[in-house]
Write a structure and sequence with these properties.
single chain, 419 residues, eight-stranded antiparallel β-sheet, 20 helices
Length: 419
Amino acid sequence: MSKRLHLFQGYGIELEYMIVDRDTLDVKPIADELLKEVLGQYGEEFANGSVSWSNELVLHVVELKCTTPTADLVQLESDLHKNILEVNERLKKFNARLMPTAAHPWMNPRKETFLWPHGNSEIYEKYNELFDCQGHGWSNLQSIHLNLPFYDDEEFAKLHTAARLILPIIPGLTASSPILDGAFTEYHDKRMVYYKNNQKRFESIVGKVVPERVTSKHQYHKLIYDRIAKQIKPFDPNDILEPVWVNSRGIIARFDRGSIEIRIMDIQECPKADLAIAALVINSIRLFSDGKMTDFHDQQIWEVDPLYEILRKCIKTSSDTTIANAEYLKTLGMNVTTAPVFDIWKHLMEQCVKHYPQEMNHWVEPLNQLFERGSLAKGILEVANCQFGKENLKLIYQELSQNLEENKLFEPCDKSISL
């Protein structure tokens, strides 16, 4: 976000998709060739009107993002879908297509990972040197990044505090990475397991994913960025890596552009699902930032550990998770001792519709569809029915790829999947 915006005036949304062979669905490392097709030469970003295409760490992933911040998520959904269709049309030349979800179900990262070789490749090379980017945790993690603006320290404090309160239950809604190496990983959100452990060599980089309680730029630099800089300096004498880039908490602060970035959302099967979830997450955070639910003090007192425990459970079982922290539920406006995580999200959706009907009414139908189905991870596992052979998985992920083209939510009972 280059222009300083105030709270909830606009959002930056980035979605990562795998490029796969149209017939086999094996990963296809041709993101650079795709961008060359539209740029006329190898490059890192193509601005296609309101949506830009850009590279990522690995060659089989392309990112689609809004070119500038927008508050119109309904229009963005339409624009993203049009660009997905255009990318897929371009990829036909390579017998390739885009595939959604946060993890490829049978990719072998040791054999099939190719890092981006152009432009800022020295940054990627340094990451590879420090963290070995050949594993699933680097080469097979597709997510949606959500950027929310703030103008000054006062707005940052409200936004960051509210966002870290909502953060732990997000994987309950978004998990879509249950299968790796042709097997159930025992986690609905395996991407977040890798996210937590990718950079454990340097404890300061990710912490416990839930960020520390910070309410100002000065405090953030002192508690987070300065610790990261000190820990990585002996391994990065040429200062290739900036702490602001390396910071990998589930919410990171970008004071240089006045935004926080939420990074723990697995990508879904289509823009309709992703943008509906984004609208719910944004406006749930807004409820607390605006003081509609509980006051700032009640939100701010939460330490990292209890929030992390809730996050850890949601990573494991997503929409099947029950939250048994009565104080947390009370902070979210629920006077119960336990609640299924989807009941919490339904409660938040009702409050969002009540307070922000213009922003939320369009998304009620797809959200209700999601609530009825469960998380995408749960839907995938339901259809797989413990049969994780490649041919079975290929049927499921072909259907998911078709959902992406049609901008349609995945339904486990869909008769078009013949298992």
